[in-house]
Amino acid sequence: MLDETGDTRVINDCEAAAKVSFSDDDRRMIPGEEDMRILSDAASKVSPEAVKDLLSLGICIGCIFRLSGVRGHIFARPLILLSIFNPVIGEPTDSNTHRPTRIGENKDPGAVHSSQESECEPVICSICLGVLQFTYFDDQKMLVKKDSADELAATIANLVKKEGHEFDDFSLEVSIPSVITENENVVLFYMKKKYGSEQWFQEKIQSERISAKDALKLSLCSPLEKLLGVKSSVSSTFRIRLTYAPPGASRKNQNITEKRQECKRRKTGTKNSFSTVHGSFIDGIECSEVTTSKADAGIRKPSDGLEDHENSDCFKFPLEKVNQPCHLEFHCYRTHIYIGGRYLKYSRNVSQTRWYIDDERMGEASVEEIIGSNILPMCLCDNYKFHAAGREDINVRMLGSGRPFLVEIQNSRHVPSEALLKEIEVKINNLENKLVKVKNLKLVGSHGWSLMQEGEEEKQKQYAALVWIDRLLTDEDMQAISSSKDMQILQRTPIRVLHRRSPLEREKIIHWMKIEKIAGSSQYFLLHLCTQAGTYIKEFVHGDLGRTHPSVGSILGCRAEILQLDVTDVKMDCFLDE
Q1: 140 neighbors 335 (Cβ within 8 angstroms)
Q2: Kindly report the CA angle at 520 between 517 and 524, in degrees rounded to 5?
Q3: Interval 43-102: pLDDT, tens
Q4: For residue 142, what is the enclosing H or E element?
Q5: Which residues pair with 360 in a beta bridge?
Q6: Burial class for 245, CB neighbours closer than 10 Å (0-12, 13-18, 19+)
Q7: What is the C-alpha separation between 180 and 131, in angstroms, rounded?
Q8: Are the C-beta atoms of residues 51 and 61 closer than 8 Å to each other?
Q9: In this structure, is the dihedral angle defined by the CA atoms of residues 525, 529, 531 and 534, taken in order, positive or negative?
Q10: pLDDT in tens, 27-37
Q11: Count of CA atoms in the C-beta half-sphere (13 A) of 560
């Protein structure tokens, strides 16, 4: 048990450590007076004997402090933290000069640690697998070891700047292997068994423990804010993601699933996980297969006794020696942004989206490509997706106020301003072929989806169709058409789309219709109509061999064919002129 004398000894030793002289290579790591006070205060709350014991078992100083219930911004400089305990544990400090090393390369021990290596400080931590030692394999399979969080943050900041993103804040995301939590639980078992009767442990075991992931985020956020010149925010659309993948699976990890199943079958019914032990002894402590409870992500509050749960894992202690750190993959990206607006299509040979049949392109272009290809270089994005409120056939023009659309911009490095959106709009509208026009371009949030989907089935559409009938048009015909109000029709899936649509029957409403005569023609006329969204207009005109009823042909009692069709209005409120 740590008494007052022991506390005084730690504090005095920590004060002495503050006066330790550093080499020129390490001067950049020297903490300020306030930082050293915080580190010394944290060190005074941990048992030196426990620190020395856990270091000898291959556990890094950062994980030791975490498991001892110490919180705060103390994990950024593990070497400085370790140096505070040098007067107590009597071990030299690892000064860490490094060179990159490929996996599998025959390495001289000095390749990673140029100075005398501490026997207590492990090369790779048995719990965090190097995460809190800032040691990892990069995407080139090179071994990288940073002295502090500041150095790792500098590497990350340089990579972010190379990506060329513009951002006002950032969010740091970290993903670590689940085996780190599992390893942590095994060591907690060991600590409970060995130090459970000591006062410092009884006090600390009730406190909140910070996860390895959150300890890393705490260490990196502050230096990243300084290097990038912006604040971190969980709601930021710009994300910096660090993904740690576990090193090559050991024999223990390869059999972990079998051990879990064995543990579930065992179900001894003990009060807590620390009473289920059998096997060898380490330092007088009986250790073998251990049943541990799953820890929650983030900060975990352990209960008294660290009760076992149904979903338990089995491990052996001591943990296997770790020879390789995790593989670190860096990725920065912006969450999707959306540009909304309306488009008009003037050509009868332009599809809405790319359209190929048997590798043969249909049409000369697509609305998707014309709009997207002009947005992509302006936003410096990786890719885009085009979404529209409904679609028209390739040979149908989209006129009137246009059809609402959204362009989903993926990983945009430049967020377009109103001026840039206007520039994009002008560029598209001034294209030589004049196939497509856009209007009312604006940057919208994810609520753009709800704007698009709002009233999707209830919205109304207006059309103008050029129709031919096999007899002369009469005044009675015009009256029969114009008198039809909110007429309900039944449409079976059209023959022309049966190969890609389910055979269903759909009830649709024709809100109104009127006929406009064409001068000099008695069998051709323009049919203007307003319908419920989703109505097949071509089939409503000719009847589709009786699959749509009633139809224009059945109302007039003659054969009717549609020759051309235009959409003249899509009645939706989104992306209209303000």
Answers
A1: no
A2: 50
A3: 676 778 888 888 888 899 888 888 877 776 667 777 776 776 666 555 544 433 333 333
A4: none
A5: 357
A6: middle
A7: 9
A8: yes
A9: positive
A10: 444 455 666 66
A11: 29
User: Exposed, middle or buried: residue 251 (CB in 10 Å: 0-12, 13-18, 19+)?
Assistant: exposed
Active site residues: 393
The length of the chain in residues reads: 578
Two tokens at 306? 């660290």
Q: How far is CA 98 from the centre of its chain?
A: 33
Question: Quick check: 533 and 475 in contact, CB under 8 A?
Answer: no
The torsion region of residue 394 among left (phi > 0), alpha (psi -120 to 50) and beta comes to alpha
Q: What pLDDT digit, counting tens, does each position of 193-247 carry? A: 888 888 777 776 656 678 999 999 999 999 999 999 999 999 999 999 999 999 8
Residue 9 in contact with residue 205, Cβ under 8 Å?
A: no
The packing angle between helices 48-56 and 4-17, to 10°, is 70
Burial of 249 per CB tally in 10 Å (0-12, 13-18, 19+): exposed
Distance from C-alpha of 574 to C-alpha of 531, rounded to nearest angstrom = 19
CA dist 214 and 111 (Å) reads 30
Strand partners, 209: 300
Contact 10, 44 (CB under 8 A): yes
Q: Which amino acid is at 386?
A: F
